[in-house]
Fold each of these.
Amino acid sequence: MQYAGKSGGGWLGRFLHLTKKSNAGPLTAVSIGEHISDCLQGTAAVSMRSLEEFALPENTETWQTDLAKLYARSGSSLGRAGQDTLSAMQRIRKLTETMRAEQKNANRNTAPNEFTDGLELIARLIQAGLGLRAATIHLGGWDSHYGAAVSLSTLIPTLAAGLSTFASRMAGDLKHVTVVIMSEFGRQVAENASFGTDHGRGGVHWVMGGGVKGGKVYADWENHGMEKALLTYPSDVPIVHDYRSILGSLCQHIEPTVDLKRLFPGFEGTPLGIYG
């Protein structure tokens, strides 16, 4: 699902490559965490855990001024890229100072967590106007083969709090952004002997943001519900939509001319109409 086809790179990396902008900045794609997400493989993505990581080893005003003078002498694409990167670093440094001041004066109602903080970082990067087009973040722990009630009682509120924080931070800017929550596999309906659930076929994607026709479940629930007679062997929710129908709808909403056959090699379906 991260690669969405047999071509090289991840689906999101391919999308960025197929819709590349001539004025793309140094932060076109970001993975929050230690590693770049598989779906972004094949593009110039940056992985970071905090804004402090996007800096030069000797991040001083004099050092950056000297580098800017060197890049300014070059009229090539390298010179322009260097100047754009240094400009982005200056804006990020100002953004970092603002975030530190806010955190110092903040009175949190809930304990901070990496997922919520990561989503807030993404929102800040979007609003900073750094040219960010795609960002990924990972929330693990859903592979609940045992004690599902215990793990989910923490994970579901964590996911909800992170999305709520992101939406609040974005405010009116959310209409220009789409958030997709996806998992690598579904779960079986029947509980196993360890009070958990094993790997299943049908799963769920959640989508929110600008233009999404929300407030509904895009499935024929009467014929594809969780009643035993409707399940597939051994106790799987049947697959109603190919996940590429969802991602394809998203990608065409952002860039209507994108070639879905190149984006998802081997996919013969049609985009799901989740946008108004």
Amino acid sequence: MKYSAVLFDLDGTLTRSEEGITRSALWAAEQLNYTGFTQEQLKAFIGPPLYVSFPKVMGMKEEDVDEAVRLYKERYARIGWLENEVYPGIPRLLRSLKENGLKALIATAKPQVFAEKIAEHFGLLPYLDGIVGPTTERVSISKADFVRKAAQMAGGKAVMVGDRCFDVDAAKEVGIDSIGVTYGYGSREELYASGADAIADDVRGLQRLILGDLPPARGIFISMEGMDGCGKTTQRTALVRHLEAMGWEVTQTREPGGDGIAEKIRQIILDPANTEMFDETEAYLYAASRAQNVRAIIRPAVEDGRLVVCDRFVDSSIAYQGGGRGLGAERIGDLNAMATGGCLPDLTIYLDMAAGKAIERRRSVGVPDRLERQKDSFYERTQRAYDVLFSKGDRSVVHVDAAGSIEEVSERMLSGVDEWLSGAAMN
């Protein structure tokens, strides 16, 4: 193992932060009547300390700089730090470091209080062993101060990862290796000129450079469950948007369905014309679709380090065919053992809504499919089966009250998912 610790710059290395930084800088400048700057000019604020950027980029008078920094921080503290997203693949990289015993720290010229808020809000904090940044109003113009402190905190052999020449220069001054990344706000030419020891064009390339022969972390499999009409489709959209903002590379799939073959099976299952389908046939068709989905989409994506979100999985068969059709939970479980091949969700999100209300909502928004045309007693049995499944407490489940507005349900769900991801990172 070449390194025992990795020091990361924040802006342009872990997060795509252009929007929050440039908007805050422009707003502060305009309050002091400094105007006419292009977006390209404003990008220069990403990386260096504010006390350097305001006079250098905007030609700001010395007597205005303190006020500009105050105004910048005022807007940034209110909204700018949220105008951010994590680069795709960063969570897996940090998980890989943690699983292989490497330390990960942030060394940034951004005020430490903001770096800590960003790391916590976007789910990075559980993977980090420290965050180092300026804590005073006027700071040294050298980033080496923060890199040196982070390296001392980490101990062992550290490498600095950043997207700008400031990161490479700081690493040289401290006497450690550096890796430049071109997916941020610097250029390959800038990084080469500064003397970066290696350059990565994307996060996966960075991961390979750091880990070498060490194994990368596997992905995560999340299933979503609930009665038809509980709002799964809407909440899945909110979940995926949230996870992608946190840097997860997300693969979406559904059941029945998935790839081309599984989608053809879906059409057979849900076609209202297939009124003579036997309950056992239905159960086998669901299992067949699942076997295809697991092998064609879910398992390959998890092995590739991606986060899979699947709309329904085995729990739906146990509830709908085992409970609703009366075939029995144990029989359905046995039937699906070969279909899943041991590929089961790491986390299940259960959107809990009373059967009557859920199916009433579903029937009101379109032409019902074959399953949605069943009698109310079918859904009552299905609901009871779900209640039994998720009352056992033998696995990871985010149990969400699906009553209320879309925003309220989303907040409950995302809060539970974030808590689970944080706990998973600590284990």
Amino acid sequence: MQSIAVGDQSMPAVGLGLWKIDPANVAQAVYDAIESGYRHLDSAADYGNEAQVGEGIAKAIADGLCTREELWVTSKLWNTYHRPEHVAAACKKSLDDLGLEYFDLYLVHFPIALKYVDFADRYPPEWLYDLSAAEPRMASDAVPLSDTWGAMEGLVEQGLARQIGVCNYNTGLLHDLMSYARIRPAMLQIESHPYLTQDALIRTAQDYGMAVTAFSPLGASSYLELDMATQQESVLGERVIADIAQEYGVSVAQVVLRWGLQRNTAVIPKTGKPERLKENLDLSNFALSDAHMTAISALNKNRRFNDPGVFCADAFNTFHAIYD
């Protein structure tokens, strides 16, 4: 299985993204993924299914499909836990839910600090602050990202996370982070697919020695059910990709995922279907030519599906942009 260097460790380059997998189905999906050969699981407190993900992991280990040491498990610090005094508790809560003693990688989910919501009041707290308000809104908290990062470094020193990193940062935030980090971030996780290539951001991260993981690597498919994309925006319908897939005798999804791997990024497609699990992992039997890589990259439209500047205003009554 192809892997990429993350700090001083090696991470499988294809993982299972666990966002939006129903808690009722995710334990079986995780078990099926591990049985199919996956060793990289990408989770988060905000996904609301970590306890069930833990059930799938525990069953797979108990049945001898893998050991804990063979798995790479990532989780993420939610926006409401950015104050330094809440970071370790949030990490430990996710570890407890997953039944694990450490994370291979723990990430700051968004460069967005929201007011603290206690575990006992609501978990996961999601985006809104006071659900009893006539018009519930997000409530920002004035926490410098440098303070949050200092507490993230403490997770490494406590043995709770072997590597730490960030999600959804732009180039300016990366430059700033590198100016104060004692423990350098090992990973940048961002949305990236042929409609959003993010070349400059990926190059910046890799020049700093950071690995890059592309979430939503197949583009619009993750957002159709949320009305954040239309079927007409699916990169999987592009003729150039269909022609390449036919030439290699693979699926259009495999072509797009292979494109991501050949950019030296990890990819974490989401699926709960066993046949798709195997297909998404089976990417080592072909390699795209330079001409094909260029043709796919030329599809870029800078189309971002996961944009807080759009969905926070639409869904949470609060405009909160993080991208220009």
Amino acid sequence: MQPGTTTLPMTLESSPPAVGLGLWKIDRAETATMVEEAIRVGYRHLDSASDYGNEAEAGTGIRAALSAGLCRRDDLWVTSKLWNTYHDPRHVRAAAERTLNDLGLDYLDLYLVHFPIALRYVSIDDRYPPGWIHDPSADRPRMETVRVPLAETWLAMEELVWAGLVRRIGVCNYGVSLLRDMLSQARIPPAVLQVEMHPLLAQEKLLRFCRENGIHLTAFSPLGAPSYVPLGMATSADSLLGHPLVVATARACGRTPAQVLLRWGVQRGTSVIPKTSQPARLGENLDLFNFTLSGDQMAAISALDQGRRFNDPGVFCEAAFGNFCPIYE
């Protein structure tokens, strides 16, 4: 199959497993062990990114699991993401190849555009991962945006599919308007959209749009606030794990609050990628398929929606990286 056709070069399922392990904020020293243990207890979906800074360690964990016969490579769904500094089509393939090298893989099951934000290029040889700030040694260290059309980045992403480096491509942190524009011109439509989604940010319209257009939705931060409290982007009062409704629902189901929140996500038809650094929590987060929330329970949890977004570049970029960069408005 050649570029320019409108048919995918292979017939593939477009949906990742319903529960995955998110590798964001897992310490590098712990990543290999956590990945191997996750595969041991049954995870087949790993969500990574070059920006997380632990892909080489994740690759070590994957190799250990494969060597131990815990699964085959074809059993795994491994996702990674194109960082903002590599949006220029000249740099997309090199970024993907670096990720593949770090993970020790021949192909990715899914490669996502991490943010609809193009930043000034930083050579892989100079600093990797490059992060948000262009030059940390500058008098005023800050992120520096550049004008690279999202459509041009997507064309380069499509080339990765034709080349066999990735099997599916998708996007993160896109809204309906960007998705609609992409669908009007993409040769390969996005297989997956990954966004922040939890009961405080239910995004019903976005979820419906994706369903109606054949785009699978993966929810990051499916537990909401906990990952953001240490970063100062949320407080413990924002956590749903102690919310009376969630606690009461968990008690009624004989489950933990975290399992109720994750089950809510799975039952809506999304995949969820909770992060944990505690091996004991791996099994708990995966154990979601022998209970069901009732319609009333689902509706009550959905009614907690406040449009509360914790991961918002329009807030954190200016505060942390010196550049106002809204994307959701």
